[in-house]
Amino acid sequence: MKKPRILIVEDESSIAELIAVNLRHNGFEPIWAEDGESAQREIDAFLPDLVLLDWMLPGQSGLQLARQWRKDPRTKSIPILMLTARGDEPDKVAGLDAGADDYITKPFSTQEMLARIRAVLRRRAPEVVTERVEIGELALDTATHRVTWQGNPLKVGPTEFKLLGFLMQHAERVHSRAQLLDKVWGDHVYIEERTVDVHVKRLRESLGPAAPMVETVRGAGYRLTSQATV
């Protein structure tokens, strides 16, 4: 079985080496790049299964790299885990908004890092479901991984696709952030509820005119409704 390749983008060699050793011991194949330029070279040569991306890098910041990779069709679906010494909420949100799937605040334990890597890789694994769901003029096809509004295709990221699929399959019901984390992300402990809000925001942006169908229910969570005025 092929080992998942993890690209470590970290300018501190001692941290990178520690991460690489732990990844190797746990069945991953680590590759190290110390800045954005060498990381881009690695990605041009071979797409990794996941990127561990340090926020503070010489030259291009991790944030800039994440945005750059999310814009490129070849790299837009690579899972990105931000490594950051910044524990502040706005910084975490900035990382998620730039396209990161999750973040780990330094210092972190090996177990936490491995759990988050496995969780992100697990959510990216395709689900074997052949089902088409239609709510009003919004349609989602899990077999072809397509979303359409009034017959027109919409661009929806992998996590947002899963989130929309769950909301559409349980339309009109309110789901708390904790329930969405459990059902969409899997029942692991490390993702924060704030992550749900960021992905809902991204989902609404992707839905464009159909965005009002994803309703915020104050104090309770989110629901998808066909009753919204679109």
TrEMBL record:
Its main location: cytoplasm. It comes from the Bacteria. Residues 130-226 form the OmpR/PhoB-type domain. The keyword Cell inner membrane does not apply. The modification 4-aspartylphosphate is found at residue 54. InterPro entries: CheY-like_superfamily, OmpR/PhoB-type_DNA-bd, Sig_transdc_resp-reg_C-effctor, Sig_transdc_resp-reg_PhoB, Sig_transdc_resp-reg_receiver, WalR-like, WH-like_DNA-bd_sf. It is found in: Cytoplasm. The keyword Plastid does not apply. Keywords: Activator, Cytoplasm, DNA-binding, Phosphate transport, Phosphoprotein, Transcription, Transcription regulation, Transport, Two-component regulatory system. Residues 5-121 form the Response regulatory domain. SUPFAM superfamilies: C-terminal effector domain of the bipartite response regulators, CheY-like. Residues 130-226 bind DNA. This protein is a positive regulator for the phosphate regulon. Transcription of this operon is positively regulated by PhoB and PhoR when phosphate is limited. NCBIfam families: PhoB. This is Phosphate regulon transcriptional regulatory protein PhoB. The gene is phoB.
